[in-house]
């Protein structure tokens, strides 16, 4: 039997750190040593609603993790707006499932060593959230435990199997997955029902061929492997034939007000007063509400006029106020915004009019930005390589699996693409705008942020 303890411990370390410093929402207007502001997304009490298959079905509302737990064995598709917490739900489930495994293994080992003595030893891997209710039953005990795997479809290259293998080996290089022993390869583990797959971003698959591969993969292992999928919009990527669908619910006004007052204990009431009837418009998802609070705290207690202005002010504050002590040249910092806009523009255009790229190889990004600087008649276009490294260290893009660059949230990519589209508007006729952009789903969020 494969020993997954080192893998699970790596998951616990990597994602516990992520949870404690959620990059997108704590970079502006918030110090990490201010405990009253460290409010994870799940403190909202996020809810989902089961999409009815038939008119006579009753509406069912559940907390996110309870909903995923209840339907995962049948395969379930979690649908939600950008920033509504879909990916965060999978990461939370991944972390808590790994912690649960380690806790159970710890207890099993204690019992085997002390068969006749009650052990009072407590494990270091304690579940820390009320949302962990039901996690223990998500996986069976003993040898029937299902190992959680995060499958990020944005990094798809050749196969779903490859994504699973890469994630396993990323967290434990010593796993005998590639040993040639058929008992330990990924396909065998899937057929034996050993894995729980958390498959993020159906809408982020790079091509129709990739979607067909995912569809076939689901059909091949649907009877043996529980799978949870997330997607933004059923118009992009479809529903893969999954019957059980859960819809992320927008934050209620009570949830939003409660969070604002906890995040901004001294300024919260003033923010709510200024928002008046616009609270639902600007803050109905956790990500947007957190950004709004951050901007308000750093914007002389003023609410931006629209959603695009929230993003613009957020990134401006980041550019000019955050990490001012970082050692980068003024010239590098001066080009950051334009480089990010151009990178987002190229990635959003993708390889076809209907496909969007949410990752890009680092060398390709270097070449794209070097060409951009040449087009701008900048005298040292190769500076793009150094400036890209600066952005990766200090800004809102990051290096992911296999040296693939991505924005820290897809909404940030769409915001920077929206800024570039604003610049292009004077050059576009109404027909060009309609036929090149408005007619395609991938530009919907971009246009909304203009």
Helix/sheet category: alpha/beta
Distance between the termini: 54 Å
Q: Identify the CATH class of the largest domain.
A: Alpha Beta
Shape: globular
Give the rounded overall mean pLDDT: 81
Largest sheet: 7 strands, mixed
Q: Using the 3D structure, state the CATH architecture of the largest domain.
A: 3-Layer(aba) Sandwich
Strand order of the largest sheet: 2-1-7-3-6-5-4
Unreliable sequence segments: 21-43, 116-142
Structure summary, number of beta strands: 10
Amount of helix: 40-55%
Compile the SSE list and pairings.
Blueprint: H1 5-20, H2 23-26, E1 47-50, E2 61-63, H3 64-71, E3 76-79, H4 86-113, E4 147-152, H5 160-171, H6 186-191, E5 195-200, H7 208-221, E6 227-231, E7 244-248, H8 253-263, H9 268-275, H10 279-283, H11 286-297, H12 307-320, H13 330-349, E8 360-361, H14 362-375, H15 383-394, E9 397-399, E10 404-407, H16 410-424, H17 430-438, H18 444-448
Parallel strand pairs: 3-6, 3-7, 4-5, 5-6
Antiparallel strand pairs: 1-2, 1-7, 8-10, 9-10
Helix pairs in contact: 1-4, 8-9, 11-12, 13-14, 13-15, 13-16, 14-15
Describe the structure.
- By secondary structure, this protein is an alpha/beta fold.
- It folds into three domains: 40-248, 3-Layer(aba) Sandwich (Rossmann fold); 253-304, no CATH class; 330-448, no CATH class.
- The protein has 18 helices and ten strands.
- The strands form two sheets. A seven-stranded mixed β-sheet has the order 2-1-7-3-6-5-4. The chain has a three-stranded antiparallel β-sheet with strand order 8-10-9.
- α7 (208-221) links the parallel β5 (195-200) and β6 (227-231).
- The model is unreliable at 21-43 and 116-142 (pLDDT under 50).
């Amino acid at each position: 039997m494969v020993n997954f303890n080192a893998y699970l411990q790596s998951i616990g370390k990597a994602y516990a750190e992520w949870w404690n410093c959620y990059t997108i929402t704590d970079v502006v207007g918030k110090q990490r040593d201010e405990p009253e502001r460290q409010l994870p997304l799940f403190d909202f009490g996020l809810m989902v609603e089961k999409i009815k298959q038939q008119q006579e079905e009753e509406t069912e509302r559940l907390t996110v993790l309870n909903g995923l737990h209840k339907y995962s064995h049948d395969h379930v598709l979690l649908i939600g707006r950008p920033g509504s917490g879909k990916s965060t739900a999978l990461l939370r489930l991944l972390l808590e499932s790994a912690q649960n495994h380690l806790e159970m293994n710890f207890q099993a080992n204690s019992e085997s060593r002390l068969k006749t003595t009650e052990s009072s030893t407590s494990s270091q891997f304690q579940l820390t959230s009320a949302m962990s209710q039901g996690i223990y039953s998500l996986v069976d005990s003993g040898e029937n435990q299902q190992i959680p795997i995060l499958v990020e479809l944005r990094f798809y290259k050749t196969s779903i199997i490859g994504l699973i293998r890469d994630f396993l080996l990323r967290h434990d290089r010593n796993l005998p997955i590639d040993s040639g022993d058929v008992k330990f390869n990924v396909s065998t583990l899937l057929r034996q029902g050993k894995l729980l797959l958390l498959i993020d971003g159906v809408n982020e698959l790079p091509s129709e061929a990739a979607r067909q591969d995912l569809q076939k993969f689901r059909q091949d292992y649907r009877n043996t492997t529980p799978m949870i999928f997330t997607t933004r919009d059923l118009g992009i990527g479809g529903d893969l034939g999954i019957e059980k669908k859960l819809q992320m619910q927008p934050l209620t006004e009570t949830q939003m007000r409660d969070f604002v007052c906890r995040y901004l204990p001294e300024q919260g009431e003033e923010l709510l007063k200024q928002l008046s009837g616009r609270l639902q418009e600007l803050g109905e998802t956790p990500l947007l509400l957190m950004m709004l609070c951050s901007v308000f705290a750093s914007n002389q207690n003023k609410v931006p006029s629209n959603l695009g202005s929230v993003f613009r002010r957020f990134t401006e504050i980041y550019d000019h106020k955050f990490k001012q002590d970082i050692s980068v040249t003024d010239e590098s910092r001066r080009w950051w915004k334009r480089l990010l806009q151009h990178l987002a523009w190229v990635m959003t255009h993708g390889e076809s009019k209907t496909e969007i790229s949410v990752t890009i190889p680092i060398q390709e990004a270097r070449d794209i930005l070097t060409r951009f600087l040449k087009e701008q008649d900048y005298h040292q276009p190769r500076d793009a390589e150094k400036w890209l490294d600066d952005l990766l260290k200090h800004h809102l893009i990051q290096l992911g699996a296999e040296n693939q660059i991505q924005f820290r949230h897809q909404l940030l990519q769409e915001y920077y693409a929206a800024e570039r589209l604003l610049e292009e508007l004077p050059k576009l006729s109404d027909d060009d705008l309609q036929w090149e952009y408005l007619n395609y789903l991938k530009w919907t969020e971009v246009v909304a942020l203009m």
